[in-house]
Amino acid sequence: MEIPDAPPSGEFHVLVVDDEPLIRESLAEFLLSRGFFCETAASGKEALGVLQSKSFELVITDMRMPDLNGLQLLEHLTHKDPDAAIIMITGVNEVDTAVHAMKKGAADYITKPFNLDKVSSSITRALHLRQLRMDNKKNTQSLEVIVRKKSTALNMALENIKEHDDIILEVLAKALDARGHETHSHSKRVQAYTVRLAQQFGIRSKRLEDLSRGALLHDIGKIGISDTILLKPGTLEPDEQMKMRRHPIIGSQILQGVKFLDQVSKMVLHHHERYDGLGYPMGLKAEEIPMEARLFAVMDTYDAMTSDRPYRKALSPEIARREITSKAGSQFDPDAVREFLKIPQLEWDKISAKFR
Asked: Are strands 58-62 and 85-90 parallel, antiparallel or unpaired?
């Protein structure tokens, strides 16, 4: 890198630190003649006192000083003000030490006895390196601001995509409800019920989001069931029941092809399992069944019992609660039933009213 002949423009404050009065004063006089503002310190400790209340763009310090030597002062300076330019004063036999100081953050070194032209060149070089370092930091900070803005924009875009995905999922759930002649907003009610019960168990964040989507899409596999079976008004024949029981598998396979629904697919696969192991499609038992599916089973049954059906009117919440309680440990996870019963009926009624 080519260094200009003159220091950067602007006012520069310089601190000269040396225990030898003649060197200290001659350097200060030289700096003042070149238009720098200059202060002096007779030791490293005195320099620390000055630095407590003032900042300097350039510090010129002797290497050998009693109490606090130049390397120790250098370490303090680089921590206090990383942007300060530091020049070390060394004897002709201390070049190796001076090079070590530059590795620790010094910008340059000058040797005694002084050649003032070389001192001038060293000061110019040190100040230009300081300016370059500050410009690089400023550019880095600007870049970080741009990156943060871009990241924020990207996150907003991803959230918008997620919102659009969820809208698509809701439209799909409504279409499934309509195709299966379910009561209006069955999937949305079961979704809201299941989320509330999950919150009772402390389920939060991404897991709660996946559970919510799983509850909404629990019957997506019915896409693969023929209308003659899905819409049949009477009892299904054994072979028809077998085909109907494939809908959790079909639903899970559909969702496994969508990356952000991978975990959701597990809940869809197991939403017809029973706590006693008599459910389908895999006959899982107790805690073998994913917790999300165990919670869903309670709320799906609650919604089915408290909704009007072509073959009967909706049952009261009290009857539904009694029926669910009687099936704790057989059809339902007893912990899920217990927490369901803890939630005031008024909360379930509010959720129901919102989606009717």
From this structure: parallel
DSSP states along 152-180 = HHHHHHHHHHHHHHHHHHHHHHHHHHHHT
Q: Which of 249, 254, 311 is nearest to 281 (CA)?
A: 249
CATH architecture of 13-142: 3-Layer(aba) Sandwich (3.40)
Contact 122, 108 (CB under 8 A): yes
Residue type, 113: P
Per-residue pLDDT tens for 49-85? 999 888 899 999 998 898 898 889 998 888 888 888 9
Provide the whole-model pTM: 0.53
Q: In the chain, which segments carry CATH 3.40.50.2300? A: 13-142
Helix (H, G, I), strand (E, B) or coil at 89: strand
Gap between the Cα atoms of 53 and 100, Å rounded: 29
Fold that domain 180-354 belongs to in CATH = Hypothetical protein af1432 (1.10.3210)
Work out the average pLDDT over 185-202: 92
| 37-56 tens-digit pLDDT | 999 999 999 999 999 888 89
Buried b / exposed e over 221-248, threshold 16 CB at 10 Å, is bbeebeeebbeeeeeeeeebeebbeebb
Domain with CATH 1.10.3210.10 in the chain: 180-354
Identify whether the C-beta of residue 223 lies closer than 8 Å to the C-beta of residue 268.
no
Q: Say which residues have a Cβ less than 8 Å from residue 166's Cβ, sequence separation at least 6.
A: 213
